[in-house]
Design a protein that fits this description.
- The structure is a single chain.
- The chain has 171 residues and is of the alpha+beta class.
- Helices cover 30% and strands 27% of the residues.
- It contains 5 helices and 5 strands.
- Helix 3 crosses helix 5.
- The N and C termini lie far apart (57 Å).
């Protein structure tokens, strides 16, 4: 107990990275201005995005982020999605550069058993991918043995995020 006391006085603060979507956006795109916006899809927009993503959408309300540099130039976008894996959810932030390709994917919350969570190495393989028919498990995207549903959810989420950002609905 005596040895722990000096540590409290010498290291009273623990520096932690900001784990909010805004913080991740600021760090990834090296900007200070991140704006959070809602996107409410009407019936026609819903059908349009569903056709573009080629994935069944389960929601009509989405949250997205825009990252601007000091000159108010758009540097990147982000889409926050909550996806069902098997019986539980995961929350994933998809960061998209130039409105075309995935720059980074961050799994913020994963409620399934940890052995089903996609590895960071596997998630990085989706970086640089654009919305195309090849952005599917078994095509450009390899499956994860023992975590097929997780891999499918992350990949379908990428399709949804790219469809929302690349379409004219997001401004």
């Amino acid at each position: 107990m005596i040895y722990a006391l000096p540590l409290i006085f010498f290291f009273p603060f623990v520096v932690m990275a900001e784990v909010s979507p805004e913080g991740i956006m600021r760090e990834t795109f090296a900007v200070s201005d991140v704006q959070k916006r809602p996107l409410l899809l009407g019936r026609q927009e819903f059908e349009h995005f569903e056709g573009l993503a080629k994935v069944h959408l389960k929601e009509q309300v989405y949250r997205y982020y825009l990252a601007f540099d000091g000159k108010k130039k758009l540097r990147g976008s982000g889409v926050l999605l909550t996806l069902r894996v098997r019986t539980k959810d995961m929350t994933v932030l998809y960061l998209i550069e130039d409105k075309k390709q995935i720059k980074h994917i961050e799994i913020l919350r994963f409620l399934e058993p940890p052995e089903y969570e996609p590895s960071e190495k596997w998630v990085k393989r989706l970086s640089g991918q654009a919305l195309s028919d090849e952005l599917r498990i078994g095509s450009k995207v390899t499956n994860i043995t023992g975590a097929t549903l997780s891999a499918r959810s992350v990949t379908e989420g990428a399709r949804i995020a790219l469809a929302l950002i690349t379409s004219k609905g997001v401004k």
